[in-house]
Write a structure and sequence with these properties.
Layout lengths: L1 H15 L1 H4 L15 H17 L8 H23 L12 H15 L21
Helix pairs in contact: 3-4
Length: 132
Amino acid sequence: MEFMAWFTHKYIMHGFLWLLHKDHHYKKRSSWWERNDLFFIFYALISMRCIMLHDDYTFWVGEPIGFGILAYGITYFVVHDLFIHQRFKFFRNTTNIYAKGLRRAHKIHHKNIKKQQGECFGMLWVPFKYFK
């Protein structure tokens, strides 16, 4: 899923669907809702559809794919929306060095408010560059 997240972010969100994603890079919002949240709904629908279409004979991979997307989505929501962006003000105070590096790396990504050069290098190794 990490590859899919990188690919989707670079070529779709910072590509032909930039119109939906660009409000995520701007701080000024009048609502907690962003157009970028439509990506969350899209992947939730794919996940539910895979689980619902699961069949032991013709589409046996539907359930593992659907639950995999669901697990990634929950993890993404907790780490990205709750922890990094503080959309609902949870996990505000942390002393964990990796968590602090993760926040710094993401802030650097958000300094770019343009469509070009918006790639994200993956959540697992980038924060190690920003330990202080």
